[in-house]
Amino acid sequence: MKQFMMIFRNEGMDGHDMSPEEMQGIMQQWNNWLGGIAAQDKLIGSEALGKTGKLLKDREVISDGPYAEVKEYISGYAITKADSFEEAVEVSKGCPIFDGGGTLEVRDVMVFDQ
Amino acid sequence: MSNTELIPNLFRTEYSKLVAVICYKFGFDFVEQAEDIVSDTFLKASETWGMKGIPDNPKGWIYTVAKNNATDYFRRKNIYDSKILPDLREENSQYEIDTSQENIRDSQLKMIFAVCDPINPIESQIVLALRVLCGFGINEISSSLLITKANTNKRLYRAKQNLKNLDVVDFELTNDIINSRLDSVLKVLYLLFNEGYYSSNENYDIRKDLCFESMRLLYVLINYTKTNSHITNSLMALFCFHASRFDARVSKGGEFILYNDQDKSKWDEELVAKGMHFLTNAGSDDNSIYSYEARIAYWHSQKEVSEKQKWGSILQLYNKLLRQEYSPIAALNRTYALSKVEGKSIALVEAKKLDLDDNFYYNCLLLELSELEIERKKYFKKAMKLTKNNASKKILSRKYGRFLN
């Protein structure tokens, strides 16, 4: 079993303010999708990332906001386990991020020999 | 209460308390002697009361005789002077065993934590709990847990040896110890309850006893401020909700009755109310597994409820539970809930991803969700091969039979 990371990106920072019902609906979708992966015993963890952020480029230079030089910003991640890259990609299907026009990037977690 | 019920009932409630206070006084080294002394006391009670009639204060009689027997024993053995006196906590009334409410409660608590010491494997902790905390005999333990008497004796012996080496009953229940060990104590009680609730043991009385005993012990923790945590309350809520359906779930003949076939008038409303009380106490901040299980059990204990709301909530709870900690049973239950919310065909697609082919319950679920007769037959046959339990085979056949009609 290898580990993989899914990086979720959303479009644009000026988030349209959502009603509590909309918010709850979206959370349920994510909960369902993540629950499905967890049910296969393939989910290690998942978190959403907040909208505030700090960017450090040099030891002293700190700018505000998440890294959003392109239109998309990272809204969260999930770490999964699978036997192969193909399997990891398969698991990512059905992700709610696509509904909002966002993207999902699958990367393998590197293992270094000690 | 009739003569024939009095002594067993007293035994149930007082045996472990007396063993605990004697051990608290003289040390865990003497646990067997403590058990013998208390057992002998009850034996004497049944002989004497049979001839002379029941005394006015039966409980007081038991306590007095047990205390006297204990002090006689230790005085006779001369152990007192050489070993115990130097270590004794109290200076006054050297032989007196304190049976005040407070000392009983403290002794029981320490005994519970001692019995659940992780130095012993968890199966042994359960055996020890049944013996020392619940007063079960070797036969009772063996038939409750479906293990051989030799196995029971072996586990008990080793467990006690390990504890004696640790000299555990001497420690005070500091906050550190409680915080670091409460989880394992709760785990033992949880497993004990499950033995009664989910086991394939066909003896109705034994199973009810196991559930009752684990609730009684958990209640000791509830009543002690330091152990009355959110998680403790969630677990108590879970026990109450499950127990509320006990009579409807298992027939007197030991047959297991499916949820949808249960006579709801047999659901104990008082226990459901208690469950809700403890669930409220646990608060919304508890993210323990028990909290999720309790909330799911809550939905299953409600008589009049919108199916849509019930299964929608249960699905979300299983999602969160699985994200916290995976277990095959949770995965299967989650998929079943999904079928109630999104329909069988969607749930079947998810079910086939679960990779639990050799699991009996997995094949039962696939049988349930399949639309094609030929598939159902395949899963039915596979499931039948995966269990040796007659009760399970009966239920499965009944389920399959309904599809054929």
Brief rundown of the structure:
Chain A is built from 2 helices and 6 strands; from the N terminus they run βαββββαβ. With 114 residues, chain A is α+β, with helices and mostly antiparallel strands.
Largest sheet of chain A: 4 strands, antiparallel
Overall number of strands of chain A: 6
Strand neighbour order, sheet with most strands of chain A? 2-5-1-6
Mean pLDDT of chain B: 87
Give the termini distance of chain B in whole angstroms: 50 Å
Low-confidence stretches of chain A: none
Radius of gyration of chain A: 16 Å
Q: Assembly state here? A: heterodimer
- The end-to-end span of chain A amounts to 18 Å
User: How many distinct helices of chain A?
Assistant: 2
| Count of distinct strands of chain B | 0
How many alpha or pi helices of chain B? 20
Helix content of chain B: over 70%
Strand fraction of chain A equals 25-35%
Helical coverage of chain A, percent range = 10-25%
Q: Percent of residues of chain B in beta strands?
A: under 5%
Shape field of chain A: flat
Outline the biggest β-sheet of chain B.
none
The appropriate CATH architecture of chain A is 2-Layer Sandwich
Mean pLDDT of chain A: 86
Identify the CATH homologous superfamily of chain A. Answer: Dimeric alpha+beta barrel
Describe the fold and architecture:
The complex is a heterodimer of chains A (114) and B (405). Chain A is an alpha+beta fold and 114 residues long. Chain A has one domain: Dimeric alpha+beta barrel (Alpha-Beta Plaits). Chain A starts with a strand and ends in a 6-residue tail after the last strand. The model of chain A has no long low-confidence stretch (mean pLDDT 86). In chain A, the strands form two sheets. Chain A has a four-stranded antiparallel sheet. Chain A has helices at residues 20-39, 85-91, and strands spanning 2-11, 43-48, 54-56, 62-64, 72-82, 103-108. Chain B is mainly α and 405 residues long. The longest helix of chain B has 24 residues, at 3-26. The model of chain B has no long low-confidence stretch (mean pLDDT 87). Among the domains of chain B are: 1-99, no CATH class; 101-228, no CATH class; 356-405. Chain B is elongated and about 80 Å long. Chains A and B meet through helix 1 of A and helix 15 and helix 16 of B.
